[in-house]
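Handoff note, outgoing to incoming analyst
You'll be picking up this chain. Sequence as last confirmed:
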Amino acid sequence: MAVKWQYLYLKEKRSPLGMVVIRLMLVLTFILVLAFILWVLENYIDPGGILDSNDPTGVFSFADSIYFTMVTVMTVGYGDIVPVSSLARMLDAFLITPGRIFVWLILFGTAYEFVYQQYREEMELKKLQKKLNNHIIICGYGMTGQAVVDELINKKYDTEQIVVIDNDEESIRYAADNNITAILGSASKENILKKAAIEKAETIIITTGRDDTNVLICLSAKNLNPKITIISRANEIENKKLLRQSGADYIISPSITGGRLMVLAIKNKLSTKLLDDLLTSRYGVDVNEREITAEEIGKKPKDVQGIVVVEVNRGDTKYQASELGSTTLEKGDWIVFIEKVI
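Most recent structure output, in case you need it:
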């Protein structure tokens, strides 16, 4: 069963310093609010309710209030400023004491996140990386990325060997809800690709909407795994050459392909329907390829049962439809064929 990433999905960690600063600001803000309430109580509601042994004038300043709140919440309690009236003592019991609990919960929560949560995520990451082998990484989970994952599932690929990377948390949660291993972060960063165990991956499919990002991912992927097969989306046709130079093995331009298919549909509705069927394995017919079996050696391509052979590949030589009638299959040939989807 695939890991249910709606309960756990990997993300780029926030800066530890930034997290500490945010939580300290929260604690200080809370202490200032408590101090202000005490200052208002002492000066406008219950004068003399809090006694400062070091100030014979009896003036309870806002600085005194901050000092008293701070040492009380942090359980220091020097005893130089104490509540003496019943109202001040009730306020200390029912406001300052719960505040002390709140502050300690924040401090313990920070410690928990730093220690336990990071340890747990590291363990889950190692467990995931151990499972992944010859897997497929999809960079970008927009409409194109989702279509890629759907097609992989239709073709019966193991969902445990599919990893999605995207820097949009909503997209990652959507992938996680569909039991797809999801990593939140930028796929152009090597540390994110390493989380996806790219050194063991078979294929990386890059579907982001920016060609410059796709180029960076190609370069990073080839650097980490020179043997990986890279299939990249090209949004602009002039960027195909740059993607090829960056290491992409196959480059697809969805907008160009879609435009040509739309033009074909003007007068060639039946062939357009066939091509549309070929582009998805869910309905109609599907295009596939494989090495011929021992039983097929010596046969004509038209005699192969259950499929329609449209191309024979023999090393660097290709035999296409017009040549298949005079071609005999040999050991090691690969055939491209059309088959009916059940």
